[in-house]
Amino acid sequence: MDVYFAYETDGRFCRLDAEESGHCCRVLRHRSGDEINVIDGLGTMYRCRLTDDNPKGAEAEVLETFPGWGGHPYRLTVACCPTKNNDRFEWFVEKATEIGVDRIVPTIGERSERKVYKTDRAVRIALSATKQSLKARIPEIADPISVKDFIQISPLASLGRNDMKESLKLIAYCFEGDTKRISIQEALNDYEGDDITVLIGPEGDFSPEEARLALEHGYIPVHLGTSRLRTETAAVLAATAVYLTF
Amino acid sequence: MDVYFAYETDGRFCRLDAEESGHCCRVLRHRSGDEINVIDGLGTMYRCRLTDDNPKGAEAEVLETFPGWGGHPYRLTVACCPTKNNDRFEWFVEKATEIGVDRIVPTIGERSERKVYKTDRAVRIALSATKQSLKARIPEIADPISVKDFIQISPLASLGRNDMKESLKLIAYCFEGDTKRISIQEALNDYEGDDITVLIGPEGDFSPEEARLALEHGYIPVHLGTSRLRTETAAVLAATAVYLTF
User: CATH number for the domain including B201?
Assistant: First the structure.
């Protein structure tokens, strides 16, 4: 089953950009009259009939609408410090998208080796993984932000939520010493809402100031079990724990 | 913390092969008298003092012994059909090792696109991920075997278990139609033992004959939630579900 992304749709017609049109009409040789599946990237899939097979700008008429196609019953933000090796972070983006994530925020920690992150490749990977895993909603790849700013500004404001109590905020941090941590499953099992933010640190962990700030802002310190995981593995494992809980 | 693998140890001395010795004595410039950490690949870590810093064959004296170092409280075999793209299967080997797996079996299904699989790279990746994630036991990478042979011969015989009831065998298969499946967490939560085998199919899924054979041999059909996952993602997710349950 192949799926195309429409950059524009009014619910009656879907328009594909040059890349998607080329894939649909040149590579896979679809012709006007063929049925194709189109997603709007916001959560809806349209079963369509191709009305213009122009490989630089195809158009298709909507036959049937599937809102919430391939969706999941939670809202998950994973804020994760990009790894030194870009491939590893991109792998996380792909896997989290397949499993089910709503927003990925590349956060730059005080101990991050990578201080600059360009999102363009991650955006393409998220689109590709969304189509491949038969989902209609492409996770948002946010602009990079410092860990401290993320803790202070996000996530509630940008999610448009007003009720602070509805959101569960978790920070996976070693907290060597006396901070008491629960497992991520315990935290998820104790929570009755559906809006979760998980903050995953860089290879060198969060700084004590970042960790302190997170606790002040209502983040619950969690551990991800006894294994020592790489940053990207921790991020995928956190997304998996949420996915398996709902 | 750097960790070396000893190809030979008698509990008093550890011997490193040329590759590990070169890494220890040439790359990281350890000299006789330095303390190093050595694993035997079978579950024990030794804190050692380097007694011979020969970069082609180093030797170290055991100071302290840590049995079960970095271990996990379950025994997990993941049998998974190698993906068309080798990188994806190798990524699964790395991630499953980090999370905690005991045996990885490359299985060849009737619908597998890849009918031949060489294990040498996977063996190296498993060693590297074991050291990186601070574990002392390197997961076994079994020789490739057909799905049908694996179902019929394995896993009990090769694990040396006699009591059939002790082992939980799961197959993740679509089973379009009337086969009733439970989620992998339900299956794990209902199980009181600690010996689990999960069988993950190829990109084209198991053949109906393979699935039937698995059910005849006591495999429980499970689903991995509603997302459509790639083979390697399904395999890592299954390992994660086991890890999070124990």
Answer: 3.40.1280.10
